[in-house]
Amino acid sequence: MMRPVFVAGIGSTRFGKHPQTTIESLAVDAGAQALVQSGIERSRIGAVYLGNFISGPLNGKEVLAGLLAEQLGLSGIPCTKVEGACASGGIAFRHAVWMVASGVCEAVLVVGVETMTHAGTAELTSALNCAMDNESDGRNGLTFPGLFGLAWRTHARQYGTTREEVAAVVIKNKSHGLKNPLAQMGAELTLDQVCASAMIADPLQLFDCCPPSDGAAAVVVCAKPLLADSPKSALIRVMASAQTSGSARIAQHPDLGTFDATVLASKQAYEQSGLQPADIDLVELHDCFSIAEIIDSEDLGLVPRGQGGRWALEGRTGMQGDIVINPSGGLLAKGHPVGATGVGQIVEVVMQLRGEHPNLVKDACIGMTHNLGGPGVACTVHILGREA
């Protein structure tokens, strides 16, 4: 990192169904919240980055960044829509961070937004499949539930991961979601209920899959001088910002029990921050499917390789565990408005580090986010910490 970057303000809509609200209205709502909370004059905002994946095919709108800036009174500054499949929001945040870190801007607004629930299953599946190579995998009938079903079978073959262990992830995250007012569908579930849910892509069942969502989240990042009047306890610093890539083709992934982009991004983030996995108090990671949390936790170095399922079953990734994973409820409970997810993860971690989260991780000082796009084609890892 170059000069230090701090989070000045955050905002978010609830993730879920918003059938009467336009996609730009959701983005404006979250963006306005972040701007007001930051206390930074709009004339000091040097750029806008907007994370979004499928507003074109689902909404017929591709110029959302400009629409957002205009409605927020930020016309005339650079406005960029960022697309990186499910990692769009995380990538947008990274661009904002580096614009401030490099000294190009004093402050930047980043927003993530998506609306999905108005689309039918076939339309939504087709749109989401744009996150893979449709010339090869898509043409052969692969979908993302199919991909992560294969990942589960690979992990089970390699490490003996069981249905009960994977269900423990679902039960934990759904329970966490009940305590989060921004979450779409928290629930108290039993193992029997998880195992009785509809089969989606064997062995993935309904409760193993995150719900499609509508929603927006926003963050204002800035240089420290703009926060001169803020109490020290409120200063949240971006300690690391890493982005990597992997293949969009399944045939190029020799081992579906791991995602190379995550392993590399986490390595870079630890190097940037000078931290180790043991220093992380909580992580909001990309549990688009239940098995993804197990694989991600291992790829991030937070759980020993092959033991992610066991740790979930033993409660070691819960609120009183060794590492608290997805206290927001994760994508499984909070929902997955694709372009908003990565920014929403930042919002969740900031609330935790400020001591403001309704499902609070006690005494948390360091938080991580992990946002994975497509079949591992893009990945961001961020580490945030309370200013010492």
SSE blueprint:
Elements: E1 5-12, H1 23-38, E2 45-51, H2 55-59, H3 64-71, E3 79-82, H4 88-101, E4 107-114, H5 121-128, H6 134-138, H7 144-159, H8 163-178, H9 191-196, E5 199-201, E6 204-205, E7 215-223, E8 236-245, H10 260-273, E9 282-284, H11 290-299, H12 308-313, E10 324-325, H13 330-334, H14 338-354, E11 366-373, E12 378-386
Parallel strand pairs: 2-3, 2-4, 9-10, 9-11
Antiparallel strand pairs: 1-7, 1-8, 4-7, 5-6, 8-12, 11-12
Helix pairs in contact: 1-3, 4-14, 8-11
Brief synopsis:
With 388 residues, the chain is α/β, with parallel strands linked by helices. The protein has helices spanning 23-38, 55-59, 64-71, 88-101, 121-128, 134-138, 144-159, 163-178, 191-196, 260-273, 290-299, 308-313, 330-334, 338-354, and strands at residues 5-12, 45-51, 79-82, 107-114, 199-201, 204-205, 215-223, 236-245, 282-284, 324-325, 366-373, 378-386.
Keywords for this entry:
388 residues; alpha/beta; Peroxisomal Thiolase, Chain A, domain 1; 38% helix
| Rg computed from alpha carbons, rounded to a whole number of angstroms | 19 Å
- Tell me, what's the shape? globular
Order of helices and strands: EHEHHEHEHHHHHEEEEHEHHEHHEE
The number of strands is: 12
Class of the domain at 5-120 and 212-232, according to the CATH hierarchy?
A: Alpha Beta
Structure notes:
With 388 residues, the protein is α/β, with parallel strands linked by helices. The protein has a domain at 5-120 and 212-232: 3-Layer(aba) Sandwich (Peroxisomal Thiolase, Chain A, domain 1), CATH 3.40.47. The chain has 14 helices and twelve strands. The strands form two sheets. The protein has a ten-stranded mixed beta sheet with strand order 3-2-4-7-1-8-12-11-9-10, with helices on both faces. Strands 5-6 form a two-stranded antiparallel sheet. The longest helix is centred in the C-terminal third of the chain and has 17 residues, at 338-354. The relative contact order is 0.20. The model has no long low-confidence stretch (mean pLDDT 96).
